[in-house]
Amino acid sequence: MTLEELFERHHEGLFRFVARMTGDGDFAKDIVQETFLNITRRKGNGVVSNPPSKAWLFQLASNLARSGLRKRDRRLRLLREGSHRVPTAPPERAPDVEVERAEARAAVRAALDGLSEKERTLVLMREEGFAHREIAEAVGTTTGAVGTMLARALAKLETRLAEARTS
Amino acid sequence: MSALHGPSGTLEPGLLLRRLDGELARAEADALDRHLASCEACRELAAAVESQDRRLKEALRKGDPEAPGAEEWGAVLATVRAGAAPGPRRSRLLVAAGWAVALLGVATAVSPPLRAWVAEWWADGVGGPERVPAAPAGEAALGEAALAFRPSGDAVEVRFESVQAGGALSVRFGDGDRVAVAVTGGGSERLAVGGGGLRVANDPASRASYDISLSSGVERVSVRVGGLPPVVLTRSGAGRGGVVVDLERGTVRKPASGGEH
């Protein structure tokens, strides 16, 4: 498999996963780039023999995201404060549409932030099509327990979403 | 009570979720399906789990940040192939090599508008990252830097990697043929042209100020400061005097009045 094929197969899912984990699309794009740069540094940029598994890629991206966020503590605090703000804009924008979109994003962000890191990983890995066995490995539990943990996390997410919308 | 039921006498949501995700062994799945065929209450519970799953998927989708377009992903892939990434400490040679790979080797991944814009920028000899000189230890950062580039469309994005401790971005919609950028009071900021506009690798402690004069064809500029919501400015909205974006709070004001929006 070439680097381009590996990139084509995984870059959108990686972006979506990191963007949902962190709430920052620009940061997520940088993490996707850094993830594949890691592969380039290890394996060159031609044919990638023994291409990494999807789970390995996502785990690497998670680690890079976590590390990147730790370095940006102050920015993350401002991001959380800013994510509930209505964007300021000159009157030419369609304010209702933009406000509605910003509020939807803020509600989802607040709901996801209300989960523990393990719960968030469970939910978001499931959204990316990972098998329960892979999710279990990532969060350090048994395959059999993943279903129950997921059900609880999803119920919590739904409650938090409802709270965020009404607050 | 069957073996499928939990202590509460109802089916465990975890079991129904495993069924939804195709994670049950064949024997388990068959037993559960036989039970659901004969138990209305459990069928309703299974339907509720599926409905919740659909609602949450839709909510997550609506809450997703905007994804990069094909052009941006093409630039990312080009950078990966070059084995370098733009950033505060990257050399100009590596960034230039990344763009050279984008021109020569990523034809199928890069859309025609980006190819044309990069070719024009490269042939002109303008643009490219300009490094603001680092201040000597113990002195205030008084370095200045400037660059100019020619955008391809009527919209430009200006992205600051970080919210700053102070400083402002002054935006004017000008009449020239290039976008001109100047930095004052800077220290280690790096400017790079790409991805549909200007990217500024700045530091959270920075108090640098930036002046951007947009070319005549630019009607709209989107300013992103760190993780703050983007600010969109238009030529008609900004007026002759332009606008100032506070790089600490991401707020917008007119230069004369100082009142914030």
In short:
The complex is a heterodimer of chains A (167) and B (261). Chain A is built from 8 helices and no strands.
Give the topology.
The complex is a heterodimer of chains A (167) and B (261).
Chain A: H1 3-22, H2 25-43, H3 54-71, H4 73-82, H5 95-113, H6 117-127, H7 132-139, H8 143-166
Helix pairs in contact in A: 1-2, 1-3, 2-3, 5-8, 6-7, 6-8, 7-8
Chain B: H1 13-20, H2 26-38, H3 40-62, H4 70-82, H5 92-105, H6 112-124, E1 130-131, E2 143-149, E3 155-160, E4 168-173, E5 179-186, E6 190-194, E7 197-201, E8 209-214, E9 220-225, E10 231-234, H7 235-238, E11 243-246, E12 252-253
Parallel strand pairs in B: 3-7, 3-9, 4-8
Antiparallel strand pairs in B: 1-6, 2-5, 4-11, 5-8, 6-7, 9-10, 11-12
Helix pairs in contact in B: 1-3, 2-3, 4-5
Question: How does this model look, in words?
Answer:
The complex is a heterodimer of chains A (167) and B (261). Chain A is mainly α and 167 residues long. Helices cover 77% and strands 0% of the residues of chain A. Chain A has helices spanning 3-22, 25-43, 54-71, 73-82, 95-113, 117-127, 132-139, 143-166. In chain A, helix 6 (117-127) crosses helix 8. Chain A is globular, with a radius of gyration of 18 Å. Chain B has helices at residues 13-20, 26-38, 40-62, 70-82, 92-105, 112-124, 235-238, and strands at 130-131, 143-149, 155-160, 168-173, 179-186, 190-194, 197-201, 209-214, 220-225, 231-234, 243-246, 252-253. In chain B, strand 9 (220-225) and strand 10 form a beta hairpin. Chain B is elongated and about 75 Å long. The interface between A and B is large, with 68 and 55 residues.
